[in-house]
């Protein structure tokens, strides 16, 4: 069982990542107003579509990120989990910033955040499998 103090860092990164997602969601509403794209319409202006894709891609990624962050933090290290989680948040900010400008500029941020997720996911798997291996062997 993790002590409360140990989970403060991944908890903070969880809140920061949710605030980041909230901001990109608000940006969709702002872009709807700016480009006069009323719900349920999802297309029509390339600048709006890029803002919408940032939000959609972020929700797709956060579904992988949050469980991976917590599993890594529980089975490996809350401090390292929070550090890698911070890299993910920075990657998502770079992704959004780049994509808002042009679709081609999203690659760096996507790569950074994807690498962070795969690190958390593989680390969590290793952290789970090692104790299981000791139990069965």
From TrEMBL:
InterPro entries: MAPEG, MAPEG-like_dom_sf, Membr-assoc_MAPEG. The keyword Membrane applies. The chain crosses the membrane at residues 6-28, 62-90, 110-133. One of its GO terms (molecular function) is glutathione transferase activity. One of its GO terms (cellular component) is membrane. It comes from the Bacteria. Its main location: membrane. GO terms for biological process: leukotriene metabolic process. It is a multi-pass membrane protein. This is MAPEG family protein. It comes from Okeania hirsuta.
């Amino acid at each position: 069982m993790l002590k409360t103090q140990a989970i403060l860092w991944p908890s903070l990164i969880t809140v920061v990542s949710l605030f980041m997602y909230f901001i990109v969601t608000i940006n969709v509403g702002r872009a709807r107003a700016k480009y006069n794209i009323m719900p349920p319409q999802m297309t029509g202006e390339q600048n709006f579509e890029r803002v919408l894709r940032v939000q959609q891609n972020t929700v797709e990624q956060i579904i992988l990120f949050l469980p991976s962050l917590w599993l890594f933090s529980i089975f490996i290290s809350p401090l390292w989990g929070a550090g890698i989680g911070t890299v993910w948040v920075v990657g998502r900010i770079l992704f959004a910033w780049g994509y808002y400008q042009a679709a081609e500029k999203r690659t760096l941020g996507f790569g950074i955040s994807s690498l962070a997720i795969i690190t958390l996911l593989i680390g969590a798997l290793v952290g789970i499998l090692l104790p299981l291996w000791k139990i069965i062997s």
